[in-house]
Design goal:
The chain has 109 residues and is of the alpha+beta class. The chain contains 5 helices and 3 strands, in the order H-H-E-H-H-E-E-H. The chain has a 3-stranded antiparallel sheet. The termini are far apart. The model has no long low-confidence stretch (mean pLDDT 91).
Length: 109
């Protein structure tokens, strides 16, 4: 799926390291199960829940509980189109910060 041109835009909500890691993991796939995301990030359930709540309040992610044949329902998380756009724009803004233009003296020591 094509998302169109990316506009570099720094996003204060995504910039927090844990939320940047969450959005990066979600951007790499269509959706992730809560436990798998928690394990891949190596953070606690409560910390992941806190950050997901903030991202959901901003409408960057959607959380969906799905029943299982046995046991408790599982929560699946995905980026919204707006969340994906914000993440890609933030990454583009970070890349712009890292670019060193010729003659700028940024590479001299």
């Amino acid at each position: 799926m094509s998302w169109g041109p990316v506009v570099a835009r720094f996003d204060d909500l995504i910039h927090v390291p844990t939320r940047l890691r969450i959005t990066a993991a979600l951007a790499a796939t269509t959706e992730l199960e809560f436990g798998a995301l928690e394990a891949s990030l190596g953070i606690s359930t409560s910390l992941l829940s806190k950050h997901l709540r903030l991202l959901a309040d901003a409408r960057y992610v959607v959380l969906e509980k799905r029943p299982q044949p046995f046991g408790r329902p599982r929560t699946w998380i995905r980026l919204t189109p707006g969340g994906r756009t914000a993440y890609l724009g933030h990454v583009a803004a970070l890349r712009e910060l890292l670019e060193v233009s010729p003659g700028s003296g940024g590479g001299d020591r």
